[in-house]
Amino acid sequence: MAGVISRGIQGPIIREGDDIVDLVVKSVYASEKEDGYSLKDRDIIAVTESVVARAQGNYVSVDQVAQDIRAKFGSEKLGLVYPILSRNRFSVTLKAIARAVKEVVVLFSYPNDEVGNPLMARSAYLKHKYDDAGSYNEADFIAAFGSPVHPFTGVNYLDFYREVIQSEGAKATFLFSNDCRAIAPVCDKILCCDIHTRQETRDTLSAPGKTVYTLADILSAPVDGSGYHDAYGLLGSNKATEEKLKLFPRDCQRVVDGIQQRIQQERGLHVEVMVYGDGAFKDPVGGIWELADPVVSPAYTEGLSGRPNELKLKYLADNDFADLSGDALKKAIRQEIQDKDADLVGDMSSEGTTPRQYTDLLGSLCDLTSGSGDKGTPFIVIQNYFKNYAE
């Protein structure tokens, strides 16, 4: 009778140099024995990106980031476009930037950052009937909307980011606009700090006489033996210590393929494996979109490519088989599932299903299962995900 089962699996505290493939496999085997279940073909094993990066030693220091910033932009004035509002995700990066230059000009979007973090309570904007096409300096912005305080964390991000910048001896200047071109008259050196819209922002701001990079270009190669990510640079990084950042893991395909091959050799089972970061879901109350990583899954085995192709059972029950009930209804629906087309896009019987990528759906499930705090379950085993009502 069981449908999808998602299990958080405890593992050891991962340190640099650990064999992550071996630790994942052994942890899953130990969980089977202790919790009384068995792996099956097409089960899914997921590993959070954080422990992969830790095992790789994919860290970088504030000084190393500052060195790369100076190499790309010089040491005078640097404009930052649309950084997210996050102590974990951006404060150490901002510290490194401020250590590298004399002045930091930050252009904020409003009323939220890219992933939905509110600069202040939305009611403050609605009260003043804000013009989201307007551009403001800091004094005019506060005069119009009041001093901003994040409604959940209680943090005034303007004060917090100013303190980070000034503590490194740099000048802090804040601007507010939802048009990224507002930074162009002020700065010739620009770092696009947005995540999912970074290429569009960079293309918009690129012009003769302008030096424009994205966060993906910073630490895209090692600096003095530092960690790096050749595709994502500082994207997906977060705070490790006050002087160190953990980067998004690289070379993850070897990890997922290694786990899959190990279990195939030892158990004769074909499992699917993925590395996951943030889930791709949005909080309906806070309006925060969870995805601060550049992608949900940086690597996964071939069987997790593509999207679900599912029928909506309640549609079948209420329409095609409205005159049936009990076993007859169950039999008819199961037969319909067995006979469904290979591609149901546009078919009314699939309306209301979730045709997103498997890895985005699974990443959200994994992220919610493992949490981001002290659960201590960096590995996830998902069973019956590909099982349907007809099986």
Describe what you observe in this structure:
By secondary structure, the protein is α/β, with parallel strands linked by helices. The chain contains twelve helices and 14 strands. The protein has helices at residues 20-35, 49-56, 62-73, 87-100, 122-127, 138-145, 157-167, 198-205, 252-267, 313-320, 326-338, 358-370, and strands at 5-9, 44-48, 59-61, 77-81, 103-108, 135-137, 171-177, 189-192, 211-214, 238-241, 244-246, 272-276, 299-300, 379-383. A six-stranded mixed sheet has the order 6-7-5-4-8-9. Strands 1-14-2-12-13 form a five-stranded mixed sheet, sandwiched between helices. Helix 8 (198-205) links the parallel strand 8 (189-192) and strand 9. Helix 1 (20-35) packs across helix 9 (252-267), helix 3 (62-73) packs across helix 4 (87-100) and helix 4 packs parallel to helix 7. The protein is globular and about 70 Å long. 40% of the residues are buried.
User: How many helix segments?
Assistant: 12
Structural class: alpha/beta
| Integer average pLDDT | 88
Low-confidence stretches: 348-352
The amount of helix comes to 25-40%
| Tally of DSSP β-strands | 14
What kind of sheet is the major sheet? 6 strands, mixed
Radius of gyration: 24 Å
Q: Per the principal axes of the C-alpha atoms, what is the gross shape?
A: globular
Strand order of the largest sheet: 6-7-5-4-8-9
Strand content: 15-25%
The SSE order reads EHEHEHEHEHEHHEEHEEEHEEHHHE
- End-to-end Cα distance: 10 Å
